[in-house]
């Protein structure tokens, strides 16, 4: 049976590729029937070995960023819809003495509640699926609490930013105008 063997050569000076001829000559001197097929720097060998993992990690990162953007867009859309549907109620609240800050807090609380529910579901799903991504992780456990806390925090920050525009729209409500249009 034919086998393959790898040899590592450490060079201290010059370009490692310049030693290829000397390596071939040394192998031919030991056994002329041995074939030297690939001579490449260790960095390139490691890069090729990790290429598939790097691709998967890059794709997962891209999909994560897209998912975060879609979550922000969804929260923004839902809150805009809620503000539009509850305009009359918010106008009544303002007319009865609620401060614009209280109305804004009401909108923000709705956005953060949506994000909190999403974060809880995401953490639960991640804990269930952690063993599938274990081979892609380096230096971190698949159930690392600080990673989960950081990602949940990031989702809450994005939800807060997505809630900003609907909350500003709710702040600019004129109670007299809202109550006369209904």
Short characterization:
The protein is built from 7 helices and no strands. The protein is mainly α. The model has no long low-confidence stretch (mean pLDDT 85).
How much beta, percentage-wise? under 5%
Using DSSP, what is the number of strands?
0
How many helices? The count is 7
The general outline is rod-shaped
Evaluate the radius of gyration. 30 Å
Averaging pLDDT over every residue, what do you get?
85
| Protein structure class | mainly alpha
Largest sheet: none
Give helix and strand order, one letter per element, not per position.
HHHHHHH
In which range does the helix fraction lie? Answer: over 70%
Poorly predicted ranges: none
What is the terminal-to-terminal distance? 87 Å
């Amino acid at each position: 049976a034919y086998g393959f063997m790898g040899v590592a050569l450490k060079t201290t000076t010059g370009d490692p590729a310049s030693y290829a001829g000397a390596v071939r000559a040394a192998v031919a001197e030991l056994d002329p029937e041995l074939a030297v097929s690939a001579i490449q720097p260790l960095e390139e060998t490691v890069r090729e070995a990790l290429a598939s993992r790097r691709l998967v990690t890059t794709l997962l990162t891209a999909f994560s960023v897209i998912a975060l953007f879609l979550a922000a867009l969804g929260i923004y859309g839902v809150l805009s819809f809620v503000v539009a549907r509850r305009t009359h109620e918010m106008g009544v609240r303002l007319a009865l003495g609620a401060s614009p800050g209280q109305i804004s807090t009401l909108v923000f609380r709705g956005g953060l509640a949506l994000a909190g529910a999403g974060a809880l579901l995401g953490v639960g799903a991640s804990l269930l699926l952690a063993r599938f991504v274990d081979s892609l992780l380096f230096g971190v456990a698949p159930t690392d609490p600080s990673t989960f806390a950081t990602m949940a925090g990031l989702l809450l920050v994005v939800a807060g930013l997505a809630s900003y525009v609907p909350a500003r729209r709710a702040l600019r409500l004129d109670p007299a105008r809202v109550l006369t249009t209904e």
